[in-house]
Q: What sequence folds into this?
C-alpha cells in the first residue's frame, strides 16, 4: 500500500497544524498552557480539540466519532506532537478507547467512547512495582464476591495520565495462571478506595502511583472476558506501539526543524554553523532517518487499517523502536549542534530531549521491541 496522504488527510493535517500554530505557536503560549513545561496536558485546550471533533478521529460514527482509521489517528498524533500541543492525555485515551471498542460491552462502549469524543481522558493501568516489562507477573488482585461483584486490592505504578482521567482500564489478577489469570476492569477514577499519587519525573508530572484499597466494582465492570485479559492486551499491541511511534515521529520532526533553524542563523567564524561539513552531514543523516521513519510508521498504519483483526508484532515493534530511537537521537544531536543554548530552558530542545528519552522505555522498552522482532524470525 502507498503511504501518501489522501486529500482529506492532507487537509486534516493542515487544519491541525494551523490550530497548533495559532494556539501554542510561541514559547510564551506554551509556557502558559503547561506551567512552564511541567504539565503535558491542558484540559481547556483539550476541550477545544473535542469541540472540533478531532478526539474521535478513529472511533466509530455510532458513538460520535469521525469513523476514521488508525492512519488518521497516527496523523493527528504526529501533527499535535510536532506542534507541541499540550494534549498529552490523548495518547493513553486513544490506546484505551480501542480496547473498549474491541472488547467492551455495548453499555461500556456507549459510555466510554462517547465520553472520549466529548473530551474525557482515559488511562490504562498495567505496570506494578514488581511487574514492568513482565506484565504477567502483576499481583494486583480482584476477588469475586458471591453476588458476582469484585473487590480489588493492590498498587499500580507509572500510570500515565491517571491524574486527569475520567476512568482507568485496570488489569488485575483473577486467577493463578501467569497469563491466563488476568482480567480487564472498567474503573471510574473517582471510585471509593482509589488513591492517585503523582510521581515527579524529569519531564514534570505525567505518571502516577495508583493505590487500590478494598475497591468494589459491579460484575458488569469486567471488560471482555474474565481471565482473558492477556489475550486482549496482546490484541491491542498494534495500536499501542503504532500510536506511540506516531507521537515520537512528530517530536523527531520538530526537534529536527528547531535544530536546522538554529544552525542556519547561528554564526561562528564569520559564517552560519550549519554551513560547516560536520553539521551539514549530521543534518543530512537525521533528515534521511526521519523520512525512513515517516514511511515506516505510515505504511504500518495503513496495514493495520487494511488488516484490523491481524496481529502485526514485527511491523508494530519496528515502528515503535525506530520512531522512539530516532526521536531521542535527533534531540541529542540537536542539543549538541546548538551547544550551550541547547541545554538552556530558553530554547525547546531540552524539552524535546526530556520527552524523547523516556519514549524508549514506556510502552515496551527498545530492548523488548528488539526481542519481539527477533522472535518473529524464529530466534
A:
Amino acid at each position: 500500500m502507498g503511504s501518501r496522504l489522501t486529500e482529506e488527510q492532507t487537509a486534516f493535517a493542515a487544519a491541525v497544524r494551523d490550530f497548533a500554530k495559532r494556539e501554542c505557536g510561541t514559547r510564551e503560549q506554551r509556557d502558559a498552557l503547561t506551567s512552564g513545561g511541567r504539565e503535558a496536558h491542558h484540559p481547556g485546550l483539550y476541550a477545544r480539540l473535542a469541540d472540533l471533533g478531532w478526539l474521535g478521529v478513529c472511533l466509530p460514527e455510532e458513538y460520535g466519532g469521525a469513523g476514521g482509521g488508525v492512519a488518521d489517528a497516527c496523523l493527528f498524533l504526529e501533527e499535535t506532537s510536532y506542534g507541541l500541543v499540550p494534549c498529552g492525555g490523548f495518547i493513553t485515551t486513544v490506546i484505551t478507547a480501542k480496547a473498549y471498542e474491541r472488547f467492551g460491552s455495548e453499555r461500556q462502549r456507549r459510555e466510554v467512547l462517547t465520553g472520549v469524543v466529548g473530551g474525557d481522558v482515559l488511562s490504562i493501568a498495567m505496570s506494578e512495582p514488581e511487574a514492568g516489562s513482565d506484565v504477567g507477573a502483576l499481583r494486583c488482585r480482584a476477588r469475586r464476591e458471591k453476588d458476582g461483584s469484585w473487590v480489588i486490592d493492590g498498587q499500580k505504578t507509572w500510570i500515565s495520565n491517571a491524574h486527569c482521567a475520567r476512568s482507568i482500564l485496570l488489569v488485575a489478577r483473577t486467577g493463578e495462571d501467569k497469563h491466563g489469570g488476568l482480567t480487564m476492569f472498567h474503573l471510574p477514577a473517582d471510585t471509593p478506595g482509589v488513591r492517585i499519587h503523582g510521581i515527579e519525573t524529569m519531564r514534570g508530572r505525567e505518571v502516577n502511583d495508583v493505590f487500590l484499597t478494598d475497591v468494589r466494582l459491579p460484575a458488569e465492570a469486567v471488560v471482555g472476558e474474565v481471565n482473558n485479559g492477556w489475550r486482549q492486551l496482546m490484541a491491542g499491541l498494534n495500536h499501542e506501539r503504532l500510536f506511540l511511534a506516531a507521537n515520537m515521529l512528530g517530536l523527531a520532526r520538530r526537534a529536527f526543524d528547531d535544530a536546522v533553524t538554529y544552525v542556519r542563523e547561528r554564526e561562528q567564524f564569520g559564517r552560519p554553523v550549519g554551513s560547516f561539513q560536520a553539521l551539514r552531514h549530521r543534518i543530512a543523516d537525521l533528515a534521511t532517518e526521519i523520512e525512513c521513519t515517516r514511511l515506516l510508521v505510515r505504511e504500518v498504519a495503513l496495514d493495520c487499517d487494511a488488516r484490523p483483526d491481524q496481529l502485526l508484532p514485527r511491523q508494530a515493534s519496528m515502528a515503535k523502536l525506530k520512531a522512539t530511537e530516532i526521536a531521542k537521537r535527533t534531540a541529542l544531536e540537536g542539543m549538541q549542534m546548538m551547544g550551550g543554548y541547547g541545554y538552556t530552558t530558553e530554547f525547546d530542545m531540552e524539552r524535546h530531549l526530556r520527552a524523547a528519552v523516556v519514549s524508549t522505555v514506556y510502552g515496551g522498552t527498545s530492548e523488548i521491541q528488539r526481542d519481539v522482532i527477533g522472535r518473529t524470525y524464529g530466534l
Summary: The first helix runs from residue 7 to 24. The mean pLDDT is 95. The beta strands are 122-125, 141-144, 150-156, 167-173, 182-188, 194-201, 204-217, 222-223, 267-268, 271-272. Residues 195 and 211 are 5 Å apart (CA to CA).
